[in-house]
Amino acid sequence: MNKLSWAEETASKILEKESAVAARNLGKIPYTAANGVFNDMSQQDICWWTNGFWAGLLWQLYGYQKEDIFRTAAEEIESKLDQNLMTAQGMDHDSGFRWLLTSVANYRLTGSAASRNRAILAANNLAGRFNLAGSFIRSWNDNGSGETAGWAIIDCMMNLPLLYWASEELKDPRFFQIAKSHADTVRQAFVRKDGSVCHIVAFDPVTGKRLHSLGGQGFAHGSAWTRGQSWAIYGFTLSYLHTKEARYLETAEQVVSYFLAHIPESGFLPVDFCQPVSCPWEDSTAAAIAACGLIELNKATGKEKYLTTAQWLLQTLARSRCSFSPETDQLLENGSAAYHDTSHNFPIIYGDYFFTEGILKLCEKETFLW
Ligand code: GLY
Prior knowledge:
By secondary structure, the protein is mainly α. It has one domain: Glycosyltransferase (Alpha/alpha barrel). The chain has helices at 3-24, 41-44, 53-64, 68-80, 82-85, 95-110, 113-127, 160-170, 173-189, 226-243, 246-262, 284-301, 304-320, 349-362, and strands at 33-34, 37-38, 130-131, 136-137, 151-153, 200-203, 210-214. The strands form 3 sheets. Strands 5-6-7 form a 3-stranded antiparallel beta sheet, with no helix packed on it. It has a two-stranded antiparallel sheet with strand order 1-2. The structure holds glycine. The site of glycine has 4 residues, from loops. Glycine is lined by residues 155, 217, 227, 337.
């Protein structure tokens, strides 16, 4: 079976499944699933950072096949997220994850003026988190410790496309400048000599001086949290695609070289590349995110190994970690939120999103890029 026919067959299975899943979950904002049933973060935590991914998946599918249920379900989620736009706690550095995949996607596909307005508000808020002394975008809001004013995290590389979009949409270079400044700081302050990246870096919020790194969601300080490596691979690739600055491509490839040297032969990614070999915890979401980045890197560099690795990762997930049955809500299983959490190997919605995005990329049917 050649690459395209396998990917197209997988895309058809996703479409059939998600059409049924969307119809029975109208109004829900899923984060995970238990016993095949999505939970609903709109009831638990409307501010949660993952609240855009299900809508993003639905918009990707809507662009491929104009089924009304995909659009209706995605629009319902987008309006629920308006609650975030009205509260300080509802806004943080993850505005890209939430409003690119809801409002920007809607605006691109339907031209909705309300969606454009929401996305511009979110982009302005994200730009407002920029720390001028340290040239970084502040990550989390105050967690009660008073320490987070100077924290930046690798994940934020994936939020920069909201700023690139706003600059282009408004013909205003400020957003672009902020995104590039943040990306340049991350290159300097997060990427280690061996190509691995740290999760969190603390800066002095007044002077901007780099203080130290923290282990964050990974195994330990100095380790290589797998999803963080994936965010860096895809995030730097996206910054290259939006700016055409070769240094971002170089950094993406530097992180990829570490990543490729550490993928286990099984193709199943651990939660952290430095975790004990006996630890059975996986992060399927990291594999799906990296695959998306690798497909884009292949297009940008022409290097075949990036595409073959992405195909292998996605095929491994499809064969052993996906539930294509329309009866179950989750698509991708065996994700992990953080190494030191008590739960592991469970479905997480961004796994479903990036697996779908990766398959659509292989079919050349992706509706929109970040
Ligand atoms: N904090 C984003 C993530 O868990 O990847």
